[in-house]
Every structure is written in structure tokens, then in C-alpha cells.
Amino acid sequence: MILGLSEEELLEFGHNACAGCGEALAARYVMKAAGKNTIVVNATGCLEVFSTPYPQTAWKVPWIHGAFENASAIASGVDIALEKLGKRKNVNVLAFGGDGSTFDIGFQALSGMAERGHNVCYVCYDNEAYMNTGIQRSGATPKYAATTTSPAGKKVPGKTEYAKPMPFIMASHGIYVATASIAYPQDLTRKVKKALSIDGPSYIQIFNSCPLGWKHKFNLGIKIAELAYKTNIFPLYEIEKGIVTISKKPVQKTPILEYLKLQGRFKHLGEKEIKEVQESVDAKWEKLLKLEETKMGF
Amino acid sequence: MTKLKISCGGIIEDVGSTKANKTGGWRTFKPVRDVKKCIKCMKCWMFCPDHSIDKNIEVNLDYCKGCGICAERCPVKAIDMVKEEK
Description:
The complex is a heterodimer of chains A (about 300) and B (about 90).
Chain A (H helix, E strand, L loop, with lengths): L21 H13 L3 E5 L3 H6 L11 E3 L5 H14 L7 E7 H7 L1 H10 L4 E6 L39 H6 L4 E6 L3 H13 L4 E6 L3 H4 L6 H10 L6 E4 L2 E4 L9 H5 L10 H24 L4
Parallel strand pairs in A: 1-2, 1-3, 3-4, 4-6, 5-6
Antiparallel strand pairs in A: 5-7, 7-8
Helix pairs in contact in A: 1-7, 3-5
Chain B lengths: L28 E5 L9 H5 L21 H5 L5 E5 L3
Antiparallel strand pairs in B: 1-2
């Protein structure tokens, strides 16, 4: 153990992730927490493409890829099959999906999995657009971010809609939900271990950067994830049995500009848009604090 | 071009076979650590997306892609990114 993290690496060297990829780091931490007695089901996305350039694979655990939309459905099947074979004990079933396959394409399968109560931990690596196919907007893309299908022009400053409140949607299914960030690996691994120890479905959303899609410098991925937490744009919290617990609160509030100015996808924003983003982030943070305070269940 | 033989069900039996790809060739800048400045906090090991820094803080240049996260995260600035000479 180093800094509370296992030394075992279950994602081998030589995968095709870009330099400074936040997703490779998220997968590395999740696998450190899950250990080798794990079956991984992967939806189509960057993680699937860079980790398995056929006929090679970077994974050192059993791994399945089906299609874009059905990672949760396959994981449900794996869970039932293990149970029928009498091998369910001490085996973790993990499903990995990007934000595109979680928020948009695979949502009905994910909702079904949560409703049927399969013993699967679904991990969504959230890089806020369809990065694998060339940076198209998704349900997770924040307002005003420029992507190839929501370009920033003279009249329309990027995406015009807010992102889906996915953790709250999943919490409405009555399951364990957590948000985590690559900047805080100890918090991330604790949440993954907790999710795997629960007998039932769980959902973890991991914030990770994408140097190509977000147009930031290759070395700034962790700094941006840290700023996302400090500016409250991506708060870290858990929802268990409908009750919200904020994992950690930033000591001092950082203005949102610090986060936005490092990324090329927000470089077209003027004062008016930045003020609007700040107001929406503050309102969402207040709402979260109120949810924690009142212990109002989902 | 040799024909690729596809196994039944597309099963890959060679576990961790991407190890054959030496991704270090992508690199423009390589990390160089100043041993005297280093306080062995292991943050470079923790944040490396390619786990190219081992537990003895030695950089594996066969696989390091040169992203520079280790240099950016180092609290004492003990890692310098030096341009590769070809």
C-alpha cells in the first residue's frame, strides 16, 4: 500500500490512451480498489477503444465489451449467471461506461439494472462529451461548452442547455450513489470499496479531464479536477438510502473563472456568461447543502 | 499484409498484451527527477495515468508518454520536463 492505494496494477502498460488521459487514471484507481476478483463489463467508449486494440488487451481481469447501450444489461446477466453457477461469493461485477453511454445511449439499460436490483457497481467516467468519436455534445456537457456539435459562434456561445443531474436521477432509484474525482484518489477508492461491499446496485460518477476535448494543456488534468471541486462545479458527495452526505467541503470558495480559464472549450465566454455560470453553480451548491442539512430523502 | 486470425467470439487469450506497445515513442518531453529535492511523497506515482513511475520513483521511459502531470503535481518541483533529443 502506498498513500492508502494498492500497488497492484490491473491495467497493463502500453494502452493507447492520450498523454495525460484522466480516464486511464480513473480506471487505474477503480481497479486498485476492486482488486483482481473482478469481472469488468465495458460499454463502447474511449476506455474500451484505448484498452483493447484487438488482438491486444491491457486488462488483467475478465473483461467483456458488448455495444454502446448495453453494459448494464450484460452486467445484470453476469450477476445472474454467477449466482446460478454458485460462484457469486467474493466476485465483484463492475460496469464501466462513459458519460455518453450513461447519460444518453445506455440510460434505459442502466435504469432497468438499478430497478431490478442487480449486484453490480456501475462506474460512469464523466468527461462531459462524446470524446471517442470526436467531441460531440452529450447530456453531460455543461452549458456554454464548445463541442463539434455545439460550436461557439457569434450568436450562440456553445451548448445552450444545462447538464442532466444524473447522480440525483440514479439516487431516485433508491440505490447507493457517489460522485468522485481523479484529484482525490483516496476518496474515490473508498467509495468504490463501499459500493462493492453493498449487496445491490450502486452508481459512481467520476469526474475526469480530457486534454483533447477540453483543449487544455496535457499536464493540467489533475489541477482542473481539483479546481472543479474547489469551485463547487463538481461537488463530492454520497447518497445512501436517499440521504445526501457531502464527503468534503472546500475551505474557501474559488471563483469559477479559475476553472474556466484553463480550458479552450470555454475561451469564448464573456462576463455575462461567466456570471450566469457562477450563479447556477452557487444555486446548485446551496440546494445540495440544504439537502444534506434537512436529510430529505430522494 | 498478414491476415489477422480472429478467434471464436473475438476472445483475447493473451492477458495484458498491450505491453508490447512501447508508447514511450510518443514523448516530446521526458521527466527528469532531482533526487536531492525529492521528498518521496509519492504524488507522481499516484497521479501517473500510465503508471510509468514505479514505487522507487524510477520513470519507465519505455511507456511514459510525457504528459508532465508528475512535474505539475510535484509539491517541491523536483521534476523537470526536458526536451527529448532525437
